[in-house]
Amino acid sequence: MDVMYLLSLTTTHIGDLPVWLQSPDWFWHAARDIGHFVRVQPALGLFLVIFAEELGIPLPAPGDAAIMYGGYLTTTAALRLPVAYVAVISAATIGSFCNYSICRRFGHPFLVRFGPYVGLTAERLEGAERAFRRWGPWAVIIGRHVPGMRIVLSAFAGVFELPRRLFVPCVLVSSTVWAAIFLELGRMVGRNSRLLFRLVPSYLVPLIFVLLALLWAAWLLYEHRWRPRREARRRAARLAAERVQSKKSLPPKAEGRTAKM
Fold first, then answer.
1. Residue 119 falls within a domain, yes or no?
2. Is 186 exposed, middle or buried (0-12, 13-18, 19+ CB in 10 A)?
């Protein structure tokens, strides 16, 4: 089935979706205000919404929905398509760089000082930093297209000190593709793209935090109890194997002398 047909069907019948997939009424008013601001000031509205989202400021409407609505506005002559591209790309790049700079300035020292209390030792931080410097550019380019990962990846890039000369071009490449996809989707969906502001299931936010807390607790349990025990068993098995091997490798005379002693 065509993806565009599914998207159009979703936006048309968004009121028939389960309640837990829709934003509550009190939340919907704030999301609608953002849509109204984008409609009245398209370029500035797109820039400020995406900039605030990249900076990590919680918003009642996802940036993807704002970009799609901006794409629809380009079909009504309310906003020129090149201006929409520039607004989204510049906001994503500047906002993510601000997020990156804040985390680079305060995040890494914070983890160095308090990380050991939650299992993040200096060795692990060093390994994570080396891994992110190696794979970070690809993580930024590809991972930023995963919903909810743009802010996290910018923060990780700052904490693990990914060089600026790599971070900024990667964000530019990723945001260019991201802007092109969602602006074109908005142009295809049309007027119904404004209804996407309704798809903010805030009911799930507490559950997400609970899930993250459980995952963090499980990781700490593994690091502080299960992993040390498993490593101790492995060391014991390795020492036992080395003893057996050393006994087998002793020459006959040495074995006799050992037995007499």
1. yes
2. buried
